[in-house]
């Protein structure tokens, strides 16, 4: 096991018999252990590690190596395709047409850059973000941070449950009620937990299969609707929003909040540990960082295309439509869902449930069922990645080794109970309406992932020669400030719409506590970024441990690292 938090540990390296560096750990009692004999504290998901082939012919780039590193980025990209994102996409198209596609592209690029930091942390240190937080933050902020991230994961779980339940209801033509769909998601979660017993590559292939289903189903809708390609390209590459008002602005903010999810930083930093990388060799670490970044680019490009399909379908077919127009069309096609749309001239408001219905009314029953299959694939795939995120976070922060069954039973019960109650006692409008609240919840948790990942990737005691350079520190700080500010605006708009004095008072009290904790994390982050005068000589007691309990790269060839 790793040295205790209360003991000082020193790390020494010496050449082994085969010329490789052997790391030893000396604890306060004077005992010396080889790093090879120290059992890594968290091995779930990592019992099997994928070997990286040698390729002497292609020194700079190898497709064989890229294939070996392929997997973690695609699992990470599923968070960009969960039911919450799909709903944000279709609402963007229905509210603003093609005008916000550039926001979606920009949010995806920002997400890619932030995911790069998370992946580098896992590769360089051999520990994921939750484990590093556990070792570096003091006890009280560490527990608060864990609680905040768990809230984000539970909120994400609830969105996945809602998406899966709605898809099952649509596929069964309403025969399976929403609460029945919620119960089915309980069973399928436990079934999917056993997939990695058949091998890590098979599990990754299964996720690839689900992404393929989403691409085919939403691609079918795209081909069926035939969006205007000129308007699509204009909306993607020209940052404008002519004639946009408050609804379009709020939708743009919602896109950023839906795309960049807090628990995904913790997930990605853990998934990269599934590859065999000798961290004592700087060249191998460099190579792993390069291939993981290439893989992330490919994975997020595919997820971006799928999101484009959804936005474009609803922008072309339903932008500017009124409830009365949709009601008339549904009645002409004898749709059993006509009662969803009131006979008025208000602009059509859609969600993932109504989205499938209106597709069925305008383009036939096949469009509805294919839409439902895509939503089901999105819900089921994000269910699995959410499960892994929760497991990594709980084990990393609390040093607990709960079985996956116990962890999923706990978090799934918390996530499913309120969703099940709403599904039993309320209609589908209430169920899909929960997504707005859940998006706000996750927006609030975003600083608790972005600030730590920038903090630790900027610290040389943690990252050594792979610490962020000045450019990345500035760019990372600016990006995080922009993203957090946008999400806070989204939260303020939601709270102002509540319209109750008591809720305003409660929100104000919570906001004060929230901002104090964010300010604390930001203070430590600024110290890590080089604003040393803020430390006031108290860094050890108030923030970081002076002896990080990490498996560091100590003796590596500095000349072989490109200055970042």
Automatic annotation (TrEMBL):
Name a GO CC annotation attached to this entry: lysosomal membrane
Query: Where are the stretches annotated Disordered?
Result: 1-20
Location of this chain's protein in the cell: Late endosome membrane; Lysosome membrane
Named from the GO MF annotations, one term is:
lead ion transmembrane transporter activity
Q: Does the keyword Metal-binding apply?
A: no
User: Keywords, A to Z?
Assistant: Ion transport, Iron, Iron transport, Lysosome, Membrane, Transmembrane, Transmembrane helix, Transport
Record's protein name = Natural resistance-associated Macrophage protein 2 isoform X3
Q: What is the lineage of its organism?
A: Eukaryota, Metazoa, Chordata, Craniata, Vertebrata
């Amino acid at each position: 096991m790793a040295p205790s938090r209360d003991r000082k540990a020193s790390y020494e390296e010496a050449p082994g018999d085969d010329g490789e560096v052997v790391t030893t750990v000396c604890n306060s009692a004077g005992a010396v252990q080889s790093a090879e004999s120290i059992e890594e504290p968290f091995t779930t998901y990592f019992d099997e590690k994928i070997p990286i082939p040698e390729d002497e012919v292609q020194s700079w780039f190898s497709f064989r190596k890229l294939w070996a590193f392929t997997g973690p980025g695609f699992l990470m990209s599923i968070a960009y395709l969960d039911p919450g994102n799909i709903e944000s996409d279709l609402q963007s198209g229905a509210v603003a047409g093609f005008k916000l596609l550039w926001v979606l592209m920009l949010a995806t690029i920002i997400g890619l850059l932030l995911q790069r930091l998370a992946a580098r942390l896992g590769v360089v240190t051999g520990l994921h973000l939750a484990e590093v937080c556990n070792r570096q933050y003091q006890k009280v902020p560490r527990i608060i941070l864990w609680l905040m991230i768990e809230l984000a994961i539970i909120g994400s779980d609830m969105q996945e449950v809602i998406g899966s339940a709605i898809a099952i209801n649509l596929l069964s033509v309403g025969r399976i009620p929403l609460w029945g769909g919620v119960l089915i998601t309980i069973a399928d979660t436990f079934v999917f937990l056993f997939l990695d017993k058949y091998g890590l590559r098979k599990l990754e292939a299964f996720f690839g299969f689900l992404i393929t289903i989403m691409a085919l189903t939403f691609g079918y809708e795209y081909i069926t609707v035939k969006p205007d390609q000129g308007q699509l390209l204009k909306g993607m590459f020209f940052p404008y929003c002519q004639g946009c008002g408050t609804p379009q602005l709020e939708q743009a903010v919602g896109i950023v909040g839906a795309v960049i999810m807090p628990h995904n930083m913790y997930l990605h930093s853990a998934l990269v540990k599934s590859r065999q990388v000798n961290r004592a060799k700087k060249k191998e670490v460099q190579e792993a960082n390069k291939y993981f970044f290439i893989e992330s680019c490919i994975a997020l490009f595919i997820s971006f295309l799928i999101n484009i399909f959804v936005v474009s379908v609803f922008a072309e077919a339903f932008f500017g439509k009124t409830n009365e127009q949709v009601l008339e069309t549904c009645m002409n096609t004898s749709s059993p869902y006509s009662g969803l749309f009131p006979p008025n001239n208000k602009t059509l408001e859609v969600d993932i449930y109504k989205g499938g219905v209106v597709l069925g009314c305008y383009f036939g029953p096949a469009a509805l069922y294919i839409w439902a299959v895509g939503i089901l694939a999105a819900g089921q795939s994000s269910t699995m990645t959410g499960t892994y995120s929760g497991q990594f976070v709980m084990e990393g922060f609390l040093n607990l080794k709960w079985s996956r069954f116990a962890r999923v039973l706990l978090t799934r019960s918390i996530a499913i109970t309120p969703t099940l109650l709403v599904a039993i006692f309320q209609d589908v409008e209430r169920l899909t309406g929960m997504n707005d609240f859940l998006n706000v919840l996750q927006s609030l948790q975003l600083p608790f992932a972005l600030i730590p990942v920038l903090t630790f990737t900027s610290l040389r005691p943690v990252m050594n020669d792979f610490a962020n350079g000045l450019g990345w520190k500035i760019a990372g700080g600016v990006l995080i400030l922009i993203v957090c500010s946008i999400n806070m605006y989204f939260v303020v708009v939601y709270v102002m719409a509540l319209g109750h004095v008591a809720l305003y008072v409660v929100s104000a009290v919570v906001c004060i506590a929230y901002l104090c904790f964010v300010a604390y994390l930001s203070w430590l982050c600024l110290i890590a970024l080089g604003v040393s005068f803020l430390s006031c000589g108290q860094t050890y007691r108030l923030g970081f441990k002076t002896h990080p309990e990490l498996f560091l790269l100590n003796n590596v060839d500095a000349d072989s690292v490109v200055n970042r």
